[in-house]
Amino acid sequence: MKKMSRVVGFTAGLMNMLIWAMFTFFNPYSSAFVGIDTALLTFFLLALPALFIMILLGSRIISSCSLQLFGHCRAHFILP
After folding, report:
1. In which domain, by residue range, is 19 found?
2. Domain count, the chain
3. To the nearest whole percent, how much of the chain has pLDDT over 70?
4. pTM score, two decimals?
């Protein structure tokens, strides 16, 4: 169950990054380019937290998969 919630969290972070990029650079609702200040603000408020979650959960998903493959190995970077 824990692994499934990690996969769902990683997928949600990835989708958040894709939606942010789409509406920042390829906005189908406007032909005007988003200003750099708006792009930076939305990056720090939307994309950066999603990126942190993807890195954290991605390392946990990969390490848990490798632990299942190599039962005798132990990853030291898994947070409790």
Report:
1. 2-69
2. 1
3. 71
4. 0.60
